[in-house]
Amino acid sequence: QVQLVESGGGLVQPGGSLRLSCAASGSILSINTMDWYRQAPGQQRELVAAITSGGTTTYADSVKGRFTISRDNAENTAYLQMNSLKPEDTAVYYCNLEGLTLQVMGVRAFASWGQGIQVTVSS
Q: Do residues 57 and 40 make contact, with C-beta atoms less than 8 angstroms apart?
């Protein structure tokens, strides 16, 4: 079983920065994609940024040029650096990781979600 622990959220003023982390633990063989999603009150969960095992990144148009996704494969950790934050970035942020684990029955694919972390941008 793969568990994800998110950290780094909080309250920040408009124009400020935060760095989110998502650390995975368990019998992980490899992590293919690392994604960050967010969900604001009354809205659907949306993809914010994604990074492949090869380092290819994609971003939602609303965060391009302000957010940067990265990964540390040795530590099985994903990061989301958020700069120039706006009130409309306020949401619960979730990480999602997909990859392979070593189970008793052999290699198994996994897809796990973090518990969610609140980011509030307000003056």
A: no
Outline where 35-110 has alpha helix (H). Answer: none
Please report which confidence band the pLDDT of residue 15 belongs to, taking 50, 70 and 90 as the band edges.
very high
- Residues whose CB falls within 8 Å of the CB of residue 111, separated by 6 or more in sequence, listed in order: 96, 97, 98
What distances in angstroms separate CA 89 from CA 13, 43, 56, 66, 113, one per listed residue? Answer: 11, 12, 23, 11, 20
What are the respective helix, strand and coil percentages of the chain, to the nearest 5? 0, 60, 35
pLDDT of residue 1: 82
The predicted-structure confidence for 82-123, as pLDDT tens digits, reads as follows 999 999 999 999 999 999 999 888 999 999 999 999 999 999
Kindly tell me if the per-residue pLDDT of 14 is higher than 90: yes
Burial of 15 (0-12, 13-18, 19+ CB in 10 A): exposed
Q: Considering Cα of 14, then 122, then 43, then 34, what sign does the dihedral take? A: positive
Can you tell me the distance from the alpha carbon of 102 to that of 105, in angstroms, rounded to the nearest whole number? 8
